C-alpha cells in the first residue's frame, strides 16, 4: 500500500536559501493539497491542484512560494529566499474527487523545514 | 469567517477513564466534519467523519462523535481510553464548494496516564 510520500522528511537551511519539497500522492488521486503546520497550530491550507491545474492559493502563500504539479502526478513546493518564519511542517494530502462527493483526504508524514 | 475552535489544547486523563474532546465550528448551511489523529512522528490519519445521515458517527477503535447542528459542535468522546490513545487530535470542517478544503482546529493533545 503506497500512501502519500513526501521528501525530504527534514530540511535544515540557512536564511536566504531556496528549498524544494516533493510530494507523491496516491496514484489516481486527482486532488492534491499543500498545508503548513506550525508548532501548536493545526494545519493551514496553502494551495491545491485538480490534476495539473492549481485552482486556489491561500493568502499565506507569498510570492516566494511556488507550487507545481506538471503532469498531474507528483507535486513540488518551492520556497525562495527562505525566512525564519517559514520554519514549519509542510504537509501534502491527496484525495480522489468525484462529482462533488467528499472523499477521504490522505496525508503524508510531512516535510519539516528549519530555517536558521 | 470559516473557523474551527478546539478550546482545550491539552487533556490529561487516566487510563480507562472517559474523555471528551470539544470542537465547535462557525455556522454554515452545510458542513462536513472530521476528526483526525496524529501519533508522534506520524502523519494525520482520519479517525471519523460526518457527511450526512445519522448524527452519531463511530470509529473502529471506540471513539464516537456527535454532530449537533444547533450548538455547531462535533465533540469527540470515548468511554474508556488506553495509553495507546495518546496523540494529538484535530477537528476539521469542510464547507464544500469547489475547493473542498479542510479547515483545521488548533488540536488537542490527549495525554493518557497510567
The parts of chain A where pLDDT drops under 50 for at least 5 residues are none
Shape of chain A: globular
SSE run of chain B:
EEEEEEEEEEEE
Return Rg of chain A in Å.
14 Å
* Beta-strand percentage range of chain A: over 45%
Helix content of chain A: under 10%
Coarse structural class of chain A: mainly beta
Q: Provide mean pLDDT of chain A, rounded.
A: 92
Quaternary organisation of the protein chains: heterodimer
Q: What is the number of helices of chain B?
A: 0
Structure description:
- The complex is a heterodimer of chains A (116) and B (114).
- Chain A is an all-beta fold.
- In chain A, 0% of the residues lie in helices and 48% in strands.
- Chain A has strands at 5-7, 10-13, 19-24, 31-37, 44-50, 53-57, 65-68, 75-79, 88-95, 106-107, 111-115.
- Chain A is globular, with a radius of gyration of 14 Å.
- Chain A starts with a strand and ends with a strand.
- Chain B is an all-beta fold and 114 residues long.
- Helices cover 0% and strands 49% of the residues of chain B.
- Chain B has no helices and 12 strands.
- The radius of gyration of chain B is 14 Å and the shape is globular.
- Chain B starts with a strand and ends with a strand.
- The model of chain B has no long low-confidence stretch (mean pLDDT 91).
Give descriptors for this structure:
heterodimer, A: 116 residues, mainly beta, seven-stranded mixed β-sheet, globular, B: 114 residues, four-stranded antiparallel β-sheet
In short:
Chain A has strands at 5-7, 10-13, 19-24, 31-37, 44-50, 53-57, 65-68, 75-79, 88-95, 106-107, 111-115.
Write the layout of secondary structure elements.
The complex is a heterodimer of chains A (about 120) and B (about 110).
Chain A: E1 5-7, E2 10-13, E3 19-24, E4 31-37, E5 44-50, E6 53-57, E7 65-68, E8 75-79, E9 88-95, E10 106-107, E11 111-115
Parallel strand pairs in A: 2-11
Antiparallel strand pairs in A: 1-3, 3-8, 4-5, 4-9, 5-6, 7-8, 9-10, 9-11
Chain B: E1 4-5, E2 10-14, E3 19-21, E4 24-25, E5 32-38, E6 44-50, E7 56-58, E8 64-68, E9 73-78, E10 87-94, E11 103-104, E12 108-113
Parallel strand pairs in B: 2-12
Antiparallel strand pairs in B: 1-4, 3-9, 5-6, 5-10, 7-8, 8-9, 10-11, 10-12
